[in-house]
Amino acid sequence: MDTVMLSRFQFASTTIFHYFFVPVSIGLALLIAIMETMYVRKGNEEYKKMAQFWGKLFLINFAVGVVTGILQEFQFGMNWSDYSRFVGDVFGAPLAIEALLAFFLESTFIGLWIFGWDKVSKRVHLLSIWLVAFGTMLSAFWILAANSFMQHPVGFAINNGRAEMNDFFALITNGQLLVEFPHTVLAAYATGAFLVTGISAYKLLRKQEVSFFKKSFEIAAIVGIVSSMGVAVAGHAQAQYLVKTQPMKMAASEGLWGKSGDPAPWTIYAKIDPKNKVSSNEIQIPYLLSFLSYSTFSGEVKGMNELQAEYVQKYGEGDYIPPVRTTFWSFRIMVAAGTAMIVLGLYAIYLIWRKKMDRPNTWFMRFMLWGLLLPPIANTAGWIMTEIGRQPWTVFGYMQTKDSVSPNISSGQVLFSVISFTTIYLILGLVMVGLFIKVIKKGPYAMDNDHDVSHDPYNKEVSPNVS
Amino acid sequence: MSLNELWFLLIAVLFVGFFFLEGFDFGVGMETQFLAKNDTERRVLINSIGPFWDANEVWLITAAGAMFAAFPDWYATLFSGFYVPFVFALLALIARGVAFEFRGKRDSQAWKKTWDACIFFGSAIPPFLLAVVFASFIKGLPIDGDMQMYAGFTDIVNVYTVVAGITVVLLCLVHGLMFTTLRTSGDLQNRARSLGQKLLLPLGALLLAFVIMTYYMTDIFDQHGAWLLIMVVLGIVAYLLAGYFMMKKKDSLAFGMTGAVIALSVASIFVGLFPRVMISSIDQAFNLTITNAASGHYSLKVMTIVALTMLPFVLGYQIWSYFIFHKRIHEKEHLEY
User: Fold this and answer.
1) Is the ipTM of this structure higher than 0.85?
2) DSSP state of B143
3) Which InterPro entries match (chain B) (predicted)?
């Protein structure tokens, strides 16, 4: 394999892995901040316990998110040095600002939150977790500003053979960013929320610490349904922006080779044959693609063949069609998972509203338990669609992936790093899941015992060689 | 001062800050293997850096981000050129970061030992490799006319860079020991101080060897002789004062002086480089400089405004967090988080 393929594999696998943890951190930080706010305002110890229990999971997750994030900051330079040279003037700024504004804020105040329970006042402690939550959101904003530039480059000019920034304001008000940021952040809130409802459902099914997990479930269910519906609304806005700025990605995500016809139907299923450039056996919902693209029930969407011809004229000879099947199916997986989240969330809200949470339906709670997997599936599929659908470009219209890779690294070196990183990530993933299960099984009050005994110097923490 | 010079200075400051701060938590990470006599002491040591190490590491991430934004070619040449060392540094930093969080989560001894090993190697490998990278900066690297660096094994790993690596590891260790004297008490504190004193002599020998090798093997004394002479003298003074304060048990002053040695060492590298950012061993004309590796004026201007507005706040709350956690950690307090 060549360095381009290996580097792409490494970027995809490490980024997907990193992105399991990022949305959980963003979502849980908000939920914990809400729980601790309720503790401070109502003085009910149960909410404090909630902040601490979910906080424990948050910290395990946060640690993995942070360390896998360091790699992200380095690998543009390591594997994509020609890309870095070309875009650094524009793309580097949001990354540096992200570190300065968000990473320092998160890391300092998470330290204060972990170690500060009895060192700072209640209000300062509460402020710390809100600042962490705010920091995770800021971080998302700046990294998405950088990603949006790759999808829809703005605020720059090509000088000296590279992209140079000439309008910072345009960069941070990029239309792509304005739709991508709410979509992504709301999805992250939903991810945290469904994790909490899922784990709570597990505990409620076992009738353990019922009051604690019922309250957790309720708070998370409300955040979950609001954000899931918000994700859909923002996603709709994103689709409309996509038709205008990256019509090829839109066509590929529909498996649409020729014109859609007017009004355009939305395809649920299709057998796609990229070799012969045809899709067959389609199952379609009339009008829906027109609605997705233009918010009205009419309007035509361009197909890949027509766009390919346009792009050849504009950018020169080449294949501008992304991997169609991956783009098509990742979009459908995302939409299906998102829809399932909304359905589950609505029913959960109905239960809470009708005060039926005391005797919840066992089947429904099982769905909620496994529902914690829906957001990560949707998040991953969404990013695969976004990034694969942009191919062959790294910066749409300006730089292709094959020209982005570092020319001075060998395939042996990249193979080595791919193997090293995937191995260590696999271990991390397994350990993390194991620890999550352990913490969850122990529950919030077993943790309390730990807490008390550890004030005693002769507790089990002290190893046998202390006499 | 031009914006290019300002950003070179800011990046230098970020690296100085990184080595000063993460330097002591690397040191403490290493100490856990031989200074702590039991698990409680190990826990005390880890907790002494618990609230800080993550923010300290952000100095490195910010430095890398600032390089990317202000000097994209420096960032690109550096990270692709040192591909394999960075893979190792990343593996070490990844293992170390999660180890702090994971080690206390199970009671088994084997579990703790595994993560303790990660903390040790994760604290020793990154400063070693970063020192190797910085030493090869000033020694020169095979960088061609397209700013591409094609380094062989001995371009990166040689006597000069390895001496630099060991020196910095030892420097971090001594600095970490001094930090331990500030945040612990009793026996642990005394042991930290006396180990620091014992390591001072070999550290001095290594530092001296490195300065002499630098004089003969690099051109930085030809370029900035006067400046570097001042810094070397200051370094010697700080080193001697560190020893004196250790002897007098003036721990915070001793910590300040080991920190000063680190800061002067890192700063000397940047002084020696200026106005270059990477030196080509093939041809001087191929050097990366603060001019030919930089972003455009507009981008630097935007970044300057953002950085100068935000920096006071960032520094302010970090200093405040050190103030909150200034008390010594006792074995009898709540240690598991």
Assistant:
1) yes
2) B
3) Cyt-d_oxidase_su2
